[in-house]
Amino acid sequence: MLSSEHISRVRRLYKLIFRLHRGLPAELRVLGDNYAREEFKRHKKCNAQEANIFLHEWTDYAINLAKQMKPLQQAKTKRVGQYLDPQMLEHMTDDQLVQLYELHKAAAAETNENPPDTIVKEKK
Q: Interhelix angle for 4-21 vs 48-69, to 10°?
């Protein structure tokens, strides 16, 4: 059985991620919220070792997103996110690779549905 401290940590992290997502553009927020919700549900009954890895990775995600959401950082870079290290792909299972590809397709579809103004102006 999981300790109450562990459950509390998971809940705090879960809430933090959703608070951080509030600062994202609308289409990224929906995508991020849905993905986080599904991942936390999927790992609800994982073993202790997987839970530690899961919490570590999502904590890193929250820290990186918080750094990127700082107003000064956004003014400098005007982007959110970072590129995935290609070496990480070597450690992923087939299911994880499929999931990553589906996430990529969903993100690309969101971008194509709402093209930036500059692209629309160029087409005219």
A: 30
3-state secondary structure of 42: helix
- For 47-60, write each residue's pLDDT tens digit: 889 999 999 999 99
Regarding pTM above 0.90, the answer is: no
Which of 98, 17, 25 minimizes the C-alpha distance to 57? 17
End-to-end CA distance of the chain: 62
* Three-class secondary structure assignment of the chain: CCCHHHHHHHHHHHHHHHHHHCCCCHHHHHHHHHHHHHHHHHCCCCCHHHHHHHHHHHHHHHHHHHHHHCHHHHHHHCCCCCCCCHHHHHCCCHHHHHHHHHHHHHHHHHHHHCCCHHHHHHHC
pLDDT tens-digit map of 97-108:
888 888 778 777
